[in-house]
Amino acid sequence: MWAAALLFLAENVLILLAGVGLGTAVLRLAGAARLLPDTGRAEPLQLWLAAGAVMLNTGVTLAGWKLWILGVIRLDLDTTWWIAVDLLALLLIMDFASYVGHALAHRPRLYPLGHRLHHRFVDARPITLFALHPGEVVAFGALWLLVLAAAPFSVWALVGYTVVNLVFGVFGHLGVEPLPARWRRSRFFAIVATPTMHTMHHLNPARNLGFYTTLWDRLFRTLDDDYDRCRTGHAQLPALASAAEPAPRLS
Question: Could you tell me the pTM of the whole model?
């Protein structure tokens, strides 16, 4: 148990370091268009929350390992084309479940209890993705384990999902748009979320509640009215249009 705990701790530390490294590299890209102003170094609270997220995610991983040993979670080690099917299924299921959870987290009675803490920080640092209330980290981890227990998935699809989740999370919390405008104008990015989408959520928290796609926001009409114009480069975000003032904080 202790050996597994140390292994999973190392895994989650590497995920944190990979996210920060990826985010730092993206911020240095010459072609990345800034959406929000650079707010400098991270606050100490962000660092403590990120450290707490690593510890809690280690516990979630350990719990998943125990559930796998008990046969509650079943993993497929085969390398077939079903890996792509499993990965797509995981992305759509988690995207919908996270959308619902995110919408609930923004309900007036629930928002002050947890999610408000994440919105305290301006979106312009790689570490912001990990600056979450401990309750949110545990809730997302429990949701993840519940999905894995519902049906057998390819272990390689799990690895792929972890990478995709990290990339989307980091890109959405940098305050920059690294994707060329000609890409963002394609039909593909009309469905797949761009970094602009989550940045706009932090500017208007009632909108853009999805993570990987725009499907649920379009279906439930929570997509920001200006998102498609901003995505395609036909409009600026309010932060830039108002001389790049810091993103507003919720009270």
Answer: 0.89
